[in-house]
Amino acid sequence: MEGADLMTEPGVPIRIFLLDDHEVVRRGIADLLTSVPGFEIVGEAGTAEEARNRIEAVRPDVAILDARLPDGSGIDVCRDIRSALPSTYCLILTSYDDQDAVLAAVLAGASGYVLKEVRGSALIDSVRQVAMGRSLMDPGVTARVMQQIRDGSPTERKLAALTEREREVLDLVAEGLTNRQIGERLFLAEKTVKNYVSSLLSKLGMQRRTQAAVFGAEVRRE
């Protein structure tokens, strides 16, 4: 069922998934949303890895995703989920208001970007709007972001395609660290680091780790 059809069918709940690494925050949001008639929490997670598995299993209408997580970000999860489940809309929830995060959210296909200090009524309304397939991204901001990408240098355009975590990994690859050393530095499993390296190589159009290392070193000098 497409999200845009939800509000036209009486009795059909909006199915919501929550991703936040702070249990207290997660419980607070869950308590707020479950008090709303027509809202149903179908799953929760505290890490990006848990969220990817559980979201694909429960197929929610809306996924509320914390932007910053111990093993990645909600923006990374959004990109993966929007690719695998186009009918699941994503709302990024964060404590930080910065242009880089808005850019990443736009590129990941998020429907909205909401600060954690948002009023409960505003969050409820945001969930309803997103479930209907509407974008909460300010059209002016989105237009400026896309214009920045078009006007940027080839290097900037390549970097814009990377997630925040992938840029961190790229920086450490440029330092000459192995996957194991990167994992120790970022508190990630070696296999997870390997996946990030494969993803960033693909996005940068490169085949070898040494190419990424050279590119990352050039970026650091600019």
Characterization of this structure:
The structure is a single chain. The protein is of the alpha/beta class and 222 residues long. The protein contains eleven helices and five strands, in the order E-H-E-H-E-H-E-H-E-H-H-H-H-H-H-H. Strands 2-1-3-4-5 form a five-stranded parallel sheet, with helices on both faces. The relative contact order is 0.11. The model is unreliable at 1-8 (pLDDT under 50).
State the major sheet: 5 strands, parallel
Distance between the termini: 48 Å
Radius of gyration (CA) equals 18 Å
The DSSP helix count reads: 11
| N-to-C series of helices and strands | EHEHEHEHEHHHHHHH
Mean pLDDT: 83
Given helix and strand content, the structural type is: alpha/beta
Q: Strand order, biggest sheet? A: 2-1-3-4-5
> Helix content range of the residues, please?
55-70%
The global form is globular
Strand content: 5-15%
The poorly predicted ranges are 1-8
Tally the beta strands.
Answer: 5
